[in-house]
Amino acid sequence: MSRLYKGFARNRMGYNFPFDDVVTKSHDDKSYGFSKESMDVLINVMSDLKRPREEKFWQRFDRENKIAWKTGTSYGHKDAWAIGFNSKYLVGIWVGNQNGEGRYNLTGITKAAPVMFDIFNILPENSWFDVFQYKGNDVFICKDSGCLAGKLCNHVEKKKYPFISHKLTPCSYHKKIAVTKNGYRITENCNENIDHYDTLFLLPPNMEYFYMKEHSDYQGLYAFPSTCDSISSTIQIIYPENDMKIFLPRESKGQKNNLICKAYSLNSNAKIFWFLDDDFIQETKGNSHEIMIDPIKGNHELKVVDNSGNYNSVFFSIIDDK
Q: Mapping DSSP to helix (H, G, I), strand (E, B) and coil, where does residue 173 land?
């Protein structure tokens, strides 16, 4: 991991073959690596990550020393890591128990990151990357989605884009919504009650689940009045994903871990009923829903149904642990 992140920095600085510590390069490959433009975007995104919320972590970190960093935590909190870099140093921290036993609150953000920040604070002459001068055409970008601005986008900014390897697509996440006087969204069955129209930034349930964690100002859908039908696809299983093959590790005592299943509903008041292979398991409430199950080896169907009749299902397999 540290060698990979070092490659990001070397790539941004224009080194030839920046990832030669990670993969074997071909003698004929003269353009090994990514564009400096893409690396500049990636590194700046990593440097803007929110710092640990605990006050003691803020006090430990000198915010003048800009770094790009990322953390990670293993399943069951068995170990954790944090890696950070600037144009001069890379620091990688691993925290864990030698016997692999999990520990409560053993996470990258709470245990490994503070050590990494302490080290950066004592390293001499920290330095950030030179400002990259972009060349290219001016384009208008939707600030909410990062796509090309569409006709309904409310927040637009102009950016200069260099040559890119993929085609930018117009934003399709803003919708024109009919609303009642009481602030409810209206379906086709309730058109006679329309008071006005509003334009909202609306993400699919699986995207909204992750987006809301970092964007507290995200509004999402208006609620439906009880007299109107709700829309389909308002709930979605976040994990496991469809057709996923899952290996459940065992603890040191030989006990197999349970499978943590997650679902999300656009309706904060929704009740979700969970079914495994058509057998009812549990009921959960709210936006975010999470249960633990112990499926046997083989193929399974996991289904969720809410109190409005919306449903979603996925098929997955538990593979042998031998």
A: coil
Residues in Cβ contact with 168 at an 8 Å cutoff, skipping those fewer than 6 apart: 139, 147, 148, 161
- Token representation of residue 171: 């934003």
Handedness of CA 107, 111, 116, 117 (dihedral sign): positive
One DSSP character per residue, 177-234 reads EEE-TTS-B--GGGGGG--EEEEEE---HHHHHHHHHH-TT---PPPPPTTSPPPSS-
Residue 262, pLDDT above cutoff 60: yes
Burial of 174 (0-12, 13-18, 19+ CB in 10 A): buried
- Whether 217 shows a pLDDT value over 60: the answer reads yes
Highest mean pLDDT among 42-51, 92-101, 132-141, 195-204: 92-101
Q: Is 314 exposed, middle or buried (0-12, 13-18, 19+ CB in 10 A)?
A: buried
CB 103 within 8 A of CB 97: yes
**Phi and psi angles of residue 177, each rounded to the nearest 5 degrees, phi first:** -115, 135
For residue 32, the model assigns a pLDDT of 67
Give the pLDDT score at 83.
97
